[in-house]
Task: inverse folding
């Protein structure tokens, strides 16, 4: 079971999740799950998921300690993603978390966080990391405004079906409101999966480098070695021009997501 832990306290969590009192409910629910799975002998694995953003980066070490104390079995991270179709609904304070300037200004913090997480994983310390080394090393690229470092294989491995029956090759395509490949209310999924439309969609997604969704990029690095090491790229940029790096405007992933790959 995946549970979002975006924040180390009520103020941060409730603001990011848009739910007053959500922090209290979250803690109660996790404690009950951890307790009941033992009492009932249920083989349930609890995984915490945390979005890396300007709001959560200062709290990462506290979040890791919190997840350990709550009884989570593992913890995974992913960088904040821009979703054009829903961004407009967020208040200004939250929309500012994924601007080019905000993300670029956190590159040094992202590098420190990734290095700390990798060091813990190498030493076998604490809670198990759900992320692979290759994935974590790619994360700084998202804050630099760069493309994903690996060819996408999602079209061969995944299908997303929304509540209306529309079929998409991946989660970002659904969120970005791309045209669906088909609809399971109009044709069987097996027929859609083997269709010419899905074949063209696979060719399109193979060329796409617009997202850093953990569920897709983790699969990509299994089949295609990343072309660049994002952690090294970020370190080099910080060494060359640490002050200029924070002020340089970059192409946002939201604009990337709107183009045809």
Result:
């Amino acid at each position: 079971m995946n549970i979002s832990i975006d924040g180390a306290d009520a103020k941060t969590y409730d603001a990011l999740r848009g739910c007053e009192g959500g922090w209290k409910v979250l803690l109660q629910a996790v404690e009950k799950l951890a307790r009941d799975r033992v009492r009932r002998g249920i083989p349930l694995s609890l995984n915490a998921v945390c979005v890396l953003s300007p709001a959560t980066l200062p709290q990462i070490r506290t979040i890791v300690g919190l997840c350990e104390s709550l009884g989570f079995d593992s913890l995974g991270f992913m960088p904040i993603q821009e979703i054009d179709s829903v961004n407009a609904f967020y208040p200004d304070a939250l929309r500012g978390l994924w601007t080019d300037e905000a993300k670029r200004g956190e590159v040094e913090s992202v590098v420190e966080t990734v290095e700390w997480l990798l060091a813990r994983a190498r030493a076998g310390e604490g809670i198990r990391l759900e992320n692979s080394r290759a994935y974590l090393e790619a994360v700084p690229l998202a804050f630099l405004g760069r493309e994903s470092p690996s060819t996408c294989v999602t079209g061969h491995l995944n299908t997303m079906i929304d509540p209306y029956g529309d079929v998409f090759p991946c989660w970002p395509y659904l969120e970005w409101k791309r045209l669906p490949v088909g609809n399971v209310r109009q044709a069987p999924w097996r027929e859609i999966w083997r269709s010419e439309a899905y074949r063209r969609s696979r060719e399109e997604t193979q060329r796409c480098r617009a997202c850093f969704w953990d569920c897709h990029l983790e699969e990509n690095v299994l089949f295609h070695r990343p072309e660049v090491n994002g952690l090294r790229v970020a370190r080099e940029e910080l060494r060359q021009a640490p002050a200029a790096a924070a002020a340089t405007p970059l192409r946002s992933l939201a604009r990337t997501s709107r183009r045809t790959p």
Summary: The first strand starts at residue 2 and ends at 4.
